[in-house]
Amino acid sequence: MNASKRIFLAEVREQPAALLTLLEHLDDFVTVGRACAERKPTAVRLVGHGSSDAAASYGVYAFGLLPGWTALRDSISLSVYYGADLDYSSSVVVALSQSGRTPDVVTYVERARERGALTVALTNDPGSELASRAELTLPLAAGEERSVAASKTFFNQLAALALLAGAAAGREEEIWDGLRRTAVVLADAIPELEAAVAPIATAFAYVGRMYVIGRGYELATAREIALKLTETCRVAAEPLTSTDLAHGPIAALDSMFPVWTIASHDPSLPALVEAAARVRAAGATLVASGSAAGEIEGAEWRLPVPAAPLPLLSPLLSVVPGQLFAAALAEAKGFDPDRPERLTKVTLAQ
Amino acid sequence: MNASKRIFLAEVREQPAALLTLLEHLDDFVTVGRACAERKPTAVRLVGHGSSDAAASYGVYAFGLLPGWTALRDSISLSVYYGADLDYSSSVVVALSQSGRTPDVVTYVERARERGALTVALTNDPGSELASRAELTLPLAAGEERSVAASKTFFNQLAALALLAGAAAGREEEIWDGLRRTAVVLADAIPELEAAVAPIATAFAYVGRMYVIGRGYELATAREIALKLTETCRVAAEPLTSTDLAHGPIAALDSMFPVWTIASHDPSLPALVEAAARVRAAGATLVASGSAAGEIEGAEWRLPVPAAPLPLLSPLLSVVPGQLFAAALAEAKGFDPDRPERLTKVTLAQ
Question: Do A68 and B82 touch (CB under 8 A)?
């Protein structure tokens, strides 16, 4: 790989700055958060594909824990393909698309809005088709993302969902301040994390299969890290909750099938610790990342991150070792992470 | 593998009979379906792990398309680990567990019931802890399942969800009759399908990675087939929607990374056809299953199934080639599908 083309890696490093830019838009989030709260929604419907869908997994927790609303990664096909006759009148829709051009997400928003939902577009292009179809638009403010593999747009999606959920709960100042401090902590941590992933990438150069394990809000992190490994390193990396692992996939592990665990200091930690013990007993190599990486016994590799200023914000730190590892592993395998095979920046798939 | 121990295969063959037994319990489903309808739920919350969670994916469509209710695979950790303060008073909970002993599913039901949800247990053991904690219980009536890898309990979960959703919509007779005819059609189809999977299993003996692609209600089928391949054949098999595939995973494919597609005659078929074309362009081996297997151009292997009596019931037919293939591939690889590595029939993981 030509070192001058390391766009993906450069964009990973830009994340703290991208977050600080997003935080300049607090007023927009307060306006939209209040509008959502006025709707008194019975459901927040999150839609998106790829990294945007991984971010939606985080939104389930952000809305569940801040305003106490039920949020779901809604089925796009149910309304767009099957024409289900659902009641959206007490729903808020949050549509996630970096480009704002994902076809079925645009169609979903049109249908949900016609049926009475309050529709919010969260996109890096406020002039996009998605933004024009939604009633309200929030900026991702990540700056242009040139690498095909997303990084800073995912990162700002997490932050934006936390900020929107915080504003819906009237707690925007606390979340805003936590995010600001997260940007500072992360900027300090990146150089050391870059150094720490390099030897793991060398050791993993011939790995073709991995599981990435998280639980609770770290499931979003697991989904995004698995997607990075899949698209930039051509590893069959599957995200699983710690409980999913025990209900089947544990059977497939062996010494050439490593498991990446994301362990944070939160109430799901005991489930992660138990899952890691199962992995170890299966003879698989274990990577422990996250703020509680030190709690995972028997890990061959550890990538601890600092504790987040607020527990709910931990995915913004936890995801970064995975992004950096994907960049390093792609290089070790001789792939160009900026231009994965058969992918384009805007996916127009049905 | 000792042929006398082919319990998993025997239980796959038993599925039509298990379904007919379930259909004897129509009255129970009508009673519970009416109770759900009286609640006028704003959300049907489906919870379960492993195969039960795959069945929950089907429930999203069954409730969305029959009574027109929003159903979601709810986050268990949000309430059980994080103590989220959610309003369950207008929710119906359908808790899925073959054994009725899955710890966090039991805890979830307790909390949701305390907070006002109408709780329904769907279990193969009506004397289980789960049944005792839920307000209402529906039988799976699959008979004892002795193989660690589930088959007929998953199959009857699909049927039970369709029947419950049908009863909630006052359409139980139509669904009941469709299911009865499905049992007949499937019983006729199984011998030919068993013969058809054998040569594919031989060709796939050294495969270690696969994707299983479905969309809409066939996503549930994709999830269950991927889980069978993972636990009985130790293949890293990941379920994806056709759209997920285009948003990243397509990059990882090569000639030793085959893709199993589930194509049915329904409105999501064009998305499947498009995804299959991407797979072919990537040089990966393509298996086409489902009632519309003939529509997938360039597939090296085809496993067509008969059309279902009602489109929504197609997963009950689509899943069977995958189950039979898993049994045959396990044998080709020298594994015992009845006793996967490190798994037990009842999973008591956190």
Answer: no
Distance in Å, alpha carbon of B43 to nearest chain A alpha carbon: 8
In a shared domain, residues B152 and B215: no
Pairing of strands B209-214, B118-123: unpaired
**Domain boundary residue among B170, B205, B221?**
B170
- Neighboring chain A residues of B64 at a CB cutoff of 8 Å: 75, 78, 82, 84, 86
Contact B99, B126 (CB under 8 A): no
Q: How far apart are CA A82 and CA B60, in angstroms?
A: 12
Residues A130 and A232 in one domain: no
Residue with tokens 């500072």, as numbered in its chain: A184
User: Is the Cβ pair B282, A81 closer than 8 Å?
Assistant: no
CA distance A82 to chain B (A): 6
Best mutation target, A60, A74, A87, A243, to test chain B (most B CBs within 10 A): A243
Degrees to nearest 5, angle at CA B156 with B151 and B162 = 135
Q: Same domain, yes or no, for B103 and B164? A: yes
Q: Please report which confidence band the pLDDT of residue A288 belongs to, taking 50, 70 and 90 as the band edges.
A: very high
CATH code for the domain in which residue B290 is found: 3.40.50.10490
Question: Is B209 found in the same domain as B164?
Answer: no
pLDDT at B4: 43
pLDDT at A2 over 60: no
Tell me if the pTM is above 0.95.
Answer: yes
Residues B206 and B150 in one domain: no
Q: Quote the pLDDT of residue B345.
A: 82
Rounded distance between C-alpha atoms, residue A121 and residue A126, angstroms: 9
Q: Which chain B residue shows the shortest CA-CA distance from A150?
A: B248
C-alpha torsion sign, points B197, B200, B206, B212: negative
User: How many domains does the structure of chain B reveal?
Assistant: 2
**Would you call B64 and A75 a contact, using CB atoms and an 8 Å cutoff?**
yes
Instruction: Enumerate the residues of chain A whose CB falls inside 8 A of the CB of residue B252.
Output: 230-231, 234-236, 341
Residue pair B242/A349 in contact by the 8 Å Cβ criterion: yes
Q: What is the ipTM of this complex?
A: 0.96
**Identity of the residue in A248, A257, A271 whose CB atom sits nearest the CB atom of B231:** A248
Pair B115, B260 in one domain: no
